[in-house]
């Protein structure tokens, strides 16, 4: 049994997780060890998810979600280190580059290359979302129309300045922890899904995160001025 590949994946996941997620990861590893001690030979999402739900650690749907990629990687690495099977990965059409990476026997190298690809895809999506967000922010706004019958005593209500906006609720809503807790999924289009039901427009999550970052940077600049 060679645990080097699994230990590397575990250390990598723990290093970029917050304290709450690290606790969940450690609990998942404990469950995997318990399953292995019972002689389990197939570490599928269904099997592992059932064990996690029994002790209220993770929901099966959370492991399946886009934000559950780290959990799936840990399960696969754990199974491979023990010569067990795992068939939780969905059937997908691989690109030539993905096929080349999949053919590499060294799990550590495969993990590093797949992480680089995932980071590259995330950066491209973030750049696209930023472009869309800035385009919307920079678009000219139509002049308000004043009705001839408007009362002279009406008071114009101005929108809040960027420096007055409380980003806390938006940041919480867009966080991976909140999305995990609701058992939602972020699709490739950037839309939120509740199971198979789309609950937001395409591009919603990356655009929201880009707007949060834009407002946050504006607030920081103004605080320094």
Protein described:
The protein is mainly alpha-helical and 225 residues long. The protein has 2 domains: 4-90, no CATH class; 123-138 and 160-224, no CATH class. The protein has helices at residues 4-15, 19-37, 45-54, 60-64, 69-81, 96-102, 107-138, 168-174, 176-181, 204-224; strands spanning 185-186, 192-194, 197-198. It is elongated and about 70 Å long. The protein starts with a helix and ends with a helix. 17% of the residues are buried. The model is unreliable at 88-93 (pLDDT under 50). InterPro entries: GmtX-like.
- The shape is elongated
Arithmetic mean of pLDDT: 79
Query: How many strand units?
Result: 3
Portion in beta strands: under 5%
State the major sheet: 3 strands, antiparallel
Side-by-side strand order of the widest sheet:
1-2-3
User: How much helix is in the residues?
Assistant: 55-70%
Structural class: mainly alpha
**Count of alpha/pi helices:** 10
Give the H and E element order. Answer: HHHHHHHHHEEEH
Q: Which ranges are low-confidence, i.e. pLDDT below 50, for 5 or more consecutive residues? A: 88-93
How many domains is the backbone divided into?
A: 2
Radius of gyration: 23 Å
Measure the end-to-end span: 59 Å
What secondary-structure arrangement, pairings included, does this model have?
Elements (H helix, E strand, L loop, with lengths): L3 H12 L3 H19 L7 H10 L5 H5 L4 H13 L14 H7 L4 H32 L29 H7 L1 H6 L3 E2 L5 E3 L2 E2 L5 H21 L1
Antiparallel strand pairs: 1-2, 2-3
Features:
single chain; 225 residues; mainly alpha; three-stranded antiparallel β-sheet; 10 helices; 3% strand; GmtX-like
